[in-house]
Specification:
This protein is mainly alpha-helical. The protein folds into 2 domains: 3-85, Winged helix-like DNA-binding domain superfamily/Winged helix DNA-binding domain (Arc Repressor Mutant, subunit A), CATH 1.10.10.10; 90-240, GntR ligand-binding domain-like (Four Helix Bundle (Hemerythrin (Met), subunit A), Up-down Bundle), CATH 1.20.120. Helix content is 67%, strand content 4%. Strands 1-3-2 form a 3-stranded antiparallel sheet. A hairpin with a 3-residue loop joins strand 2 (75-78) and strand 3 (82-85). The longest helix is centred in the C-terminal third of the chain and has 32 residues, at 209-240.
């Protein structure tokens, strides 16, 4: 279908009673999780009625959730033709990872070379307390570590003291999350993440800007390669399942 036909589809008035606002939040969360877990696969088409039946709700919270997900780039609507999970475009993700790398390199170099405010130092201290821990204190739950990993990188950029840079970084983080969270599919990636985060923090604390730049570049590039492989594997598995 021509991209020019993309737009918010029209819907008829829901026949069921309107659900409370909390139901809309719930459906948004379930839809988002189903997309992230590939239970709704990239490129998959569906209607609001089909999702309403799937989640046993009226079309109103489904439509509200889809509109919200559309602003996040996770789905797109077609005029009178339903919705689609946005297909994965690896070229776009490569561009986003490159932008992420530029931002984080600048941030860690600034942290390693500049004097920090009390607030910035406090944020860095919190990261140190979380990631520079003995192996027996490391977390093992993949989803929990994925959330903490995202927070680690956000806090590094936030600690560098540029709110506009942090805003752009958060936008990039939102857009790559569907792939990035797959980085912790295998236990060895969790251990590797702890080791690499610890090395990055130690280089910052020792005021080694060149070393920390190399570490953050390598860390992001390795994560990008792993998530790309896992994503391709999942997409291939979905194709062979049918």
């Amino acid at each position: 279908m021509n991209p020019s036909t993309l737009m918010t589809p029209t819907v008829k008035k829901a026949s069921r009673k309107a659900e409370p606002a909390s139901r809309g939040v719930e459906i948004y969360g379930r839809l988002r999780e189903d997309i992230f877990e590939f239970r709704l696969a990239p490129g998959e088409r569906f209607t609001e009625s089909e999702l309403a039946e799937r989640y046993q709700v009226s079309r109103t919270p489904v439509r509200e959730s889809l509109l919200r997900l559309q602003t996040e780039g996770l789905v797109r609507g077609y005029f009178r033709s339903g919705w689609e999970v946005t297909p994965i475009d690896f070229a776009v993700f490569d561009h986003l990872y490159e932008l992420r790398k530029l931002i984080e390199v600048h941030a860690v170099r600034r942290l390693a070379t500049g004097s920090l405010t009390a607030e910035e130092q406090a944020r860095l201290d919190q990261l140190t307390a979380l990631w520079l821990v003995p192996s027996e204190q490391r977390l093992s739950d993949a989803k929990q570590v994925a959330a903490l990993d995202e927070a680690f990188h956000t806090e590094l950029v936030g600690s560098a003291g540029n709110p506009e840079m942090l805003r752009v970084h958060r936008d990039v983080t939102d857009r790559i999350r569907i792939m990035r969270r797959l980085d912790f599919t295998y236990p060895e990636r969790i251990s590797c993440t702890y080791d690499e985060h610890a090395a990055i923090l130690q280089a910052i604390l020792r005021h080694k800007p060149d070393q920390v730049e190399l570490l953050i570049r390598t860390h992001i590039e390795r994560s990008q390669q792993e998530t790309r492989k896992i994503t391709l594997h999942r997409l291939l598995s979905l194709k062979t399942a049918f």
